[in-house]
Amino acid sequence: MGLHVQYYGMLAEVTGQAEENWLESGRLTVGEFRKLVTDKYPELLGKKFKIAVNRRISEDLAPIDPQSEIALLPPFAGG
Amino acid sequence: MEKEHKPRKVFVEGPISPDFIAKSIASHQSKTNIGAHAIFLGQIRADEKEGGVVSGIEYTAYEEMANDVFYEIREAAFSKFELTCLHIYHSLGLVPTGEISLFIFVSSPHRRAAFEASEFIVEEIKNNAPIFGKELVGEGGDFQWKENR
């Protein structure tokens, strides 16, 4: 079962794509996911971003259910 | 009994025209329990950056989440303030310098609720709506990503 991962704004430029599917078999926390995604794209380490799980900003200890939609959100600029 | 407030369409493609704003005002003339409107307009500023002057902002958003956030902001505003109605519009895509990217229109029987609600809504949007802006700088196609403070 997989995670649907989306990258917004400048983060899509860093990763070279707007979205991708991750085949994750185990259950991750948000913090574990953050480690995996920054291992995969080391340039993310220098960027500020929040992680939304199923459209909710989530803290590092929160668990991620299988098949979740995950979004990496750079600083907001609305208004 | 609490009224239910349905989610409304917030995002519009490109700048928000003064004509659209005028028509929104006119459409409230029949709501005669309103005594005060407060309107907040966000306009694209020609900031000077290294490499030139900002010529516009290109907005993108995590639209599904942003719509959830706008809905929550609406609900919170209706519960905190005595409002008759409330409209929020935000641009996506390119908005040139000098044009409007955010239109908040709050109506109430009395002025204080209208003033306070409009400020509350702007701050909530800036802090919580997942909207991203690329500032286009100078003539050479340069850009930088905007960040709300």
UniProtKB/TrEMBL annotation, chain A:
It comes from the Bacteria. It holds the Pfam family ThiS. Gene3D superfamilies: 3.10.20.30. This is Molybdopterin synthase sulfur carrier subunit. It comes from Dyadobacter linearis. The lineage of its organism: Bacteria, Pseudomonadati, Bacteroidota, Cytophagia, Cytophagales.
TrEMBL record, chain B:
InterPro entries: MoaE_sf (IPR036563), Mopterin_biosynth_MoaE (IPR003448). It comes from Dyadobacter linearis. It catalyses: 2 [molybdopterin-synthase sulfur-carrier protein]-C-terminal-Gly-aminoethanethioate + cyclic pyranopterin phosphate + H2O = molybdopterin + 2 [molybdopterin-synthase sulfur-carrier protein]-C-terminal Gly-Gly + 2 H(+). Its EC number is 2.8.1.12. This is Molybdopterin synthase catalytic subunit. Keywords: Molybdenum cofactor biosynthesis. PANTHER family: MOLYBDOPTERIN SYNTHASE RELATED. It holds the Pfam family MoaE. It comes from the Bacteria.
